[in-house]
């Protein structure tokens, strides 16, 4: 519920949080309403800066039980000062395990997400679950 989410945020906002040895303060939270969906429409995406450039990780199984992402995810590394990956590169490198009917929507989203990541100078961005469902049209 919204009240539970608000209470969770109030407990953590503005306070130091330690995640895997890194401590920082959480100040911004994005809360979206739950959309009922089948579990096979859940994906995972993470973009993070590494020494070689930006690494984009994607797996066709997202959600709270994702487990060991490094062993499951398809990965693309965009070299420092490299060009943005094309949609074809993103699709072939990351989406081979995704049903073809969802690939166009996902590759468009991933291209825009990475462009925003670069433009806003992010160093880490993670979405789980990323849900992609057929439109109701």
TrEMBL record:
Gene3D superfamilies for this protein: 3.30.470.110
Domain ATP-citrate synthase ATP-grasp: 2-134
SUPFAM superfamilies for the chain: Glutathione synthetase ATP-binding domain-like (SSF56059)
Domain of life assignment: Eukaryota
One Pfam family recorded for the sequence: Citrate_synth_N
Protein name: ATP-citrate synthase ATP-grasp domain-containing protein
Lineage: Eukaryota, Fungi, Dikarya, Basidiomycota, Pucciniomycotina
């Amino acid at each position: 519920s919204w009240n539970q989410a608000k209470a969770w945020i109030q407990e953590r906002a503005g306070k130091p949080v330690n995640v895997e040895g890194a401590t920082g303060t959480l100040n911004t939270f994005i809360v979206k309403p739950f959309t009922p969906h089948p579990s096979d429409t859940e994906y995972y995406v993470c973009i993070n800066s590494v020494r070689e450039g930006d690494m984009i990780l994607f797996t066709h199984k997202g959600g709270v039980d994702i487990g060991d992402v490094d062993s499951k995810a398809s990965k693309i590394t965009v070299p420092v000062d490299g060009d943005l990956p094309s949609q074809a590169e993103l699709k072939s490198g990351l989406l081979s395990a995704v049903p073809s009917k969802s690939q166009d929507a996902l590759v468009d989203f991933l291209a825009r997400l990475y462009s925003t990541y670069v433009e806003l100078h992010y160093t880490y961005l993670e979405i789980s679950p990323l849900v992609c469902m057929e439109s109701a049209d």
